[in-house]
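Quick one, tokens below:
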């Protein structure tokens, strides 16, 4: 089931970056730069969104005031995304009931991980669509071509990292880190996990549809 994100961010470059990344990852994102317009839209149907991502330095209204109005009419989770990363602002945010606080700058992948964590804490199903795959992170399952495949934790961690970095060359060392394996893990261990993953999702290494081997480098997700 697609998750819906309300993004309130007046930096249009940051807004596009976050929206494009979340959309690529299977979320449906609606973005506003004007907080008053965002509040009017949200209050028309408070149950339409699963998570709100909120900047603090906004025109017309401070982000904390926006947060108060959201929390007054809804229990929708709020993640603060702000350059105001000092401890005082963080404490104030948590006092207002925000669910997480990300200080800019940060990698978009971290925001995805925070969203997943918030959804998990609030009891939402951890399922989303990405390309040919329906992914359920809580069940550690993916569905492709109508078939459901169970993945191990390591396989799921590697698979998610590959998808999150679709089109980018990834070293085996990066995949070791993404799977939280010990730093001294041998490269052939990653190759083994990739081989198992390919087998489960029906990907032919000689004619790959999803995971391409890069000689002397590592792997790239092309699906």
């Amino acid at each position: 089931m697609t998750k819906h994100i309300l993004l309130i961010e007046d930096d249009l470059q940051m807004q596009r970056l976050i929206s494009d990344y979340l959309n690529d990852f299977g979320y449906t994102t609606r973005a506003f730069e004007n907080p008053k317009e965002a509040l009017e839209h949200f209050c028309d149907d408070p149950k339409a969104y699963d998570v709100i991502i909120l900047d603090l330095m906004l025109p017309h209204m401070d982000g904390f005031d926006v947060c108060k109005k959201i929390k007054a009419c809804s229990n929708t989770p709020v993640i603060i995304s702000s350059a105001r990363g000092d401890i005082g602002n963080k404490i104030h945010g948590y006092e207002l009931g925000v669910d997480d606080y990300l200080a800019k700058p940060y990698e978009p992948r971290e925001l995805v991980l925070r969203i997943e964590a918030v959804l998990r804490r609030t009891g939402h199903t951890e399922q989303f669509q990405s390309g040919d795959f329906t992914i359920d992170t809580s069940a550690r399952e993916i569905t492709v071509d109508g078939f459901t495949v169970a993945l191990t934790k390591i396989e799921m961690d590697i698979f998610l990292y590959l998808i999150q970095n679709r089109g980018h060359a990834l070293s085996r060392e990066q995949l070791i880190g993404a799977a939280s394996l010990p730093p001294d893990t041998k490269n052939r261990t990653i190759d083994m996990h990739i081989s198992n993953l390919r087998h489960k999702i029906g990907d032919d290494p000689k004619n790959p549809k999803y995971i391409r081997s890069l000689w002397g480098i590592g792997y790239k997700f092309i699906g």
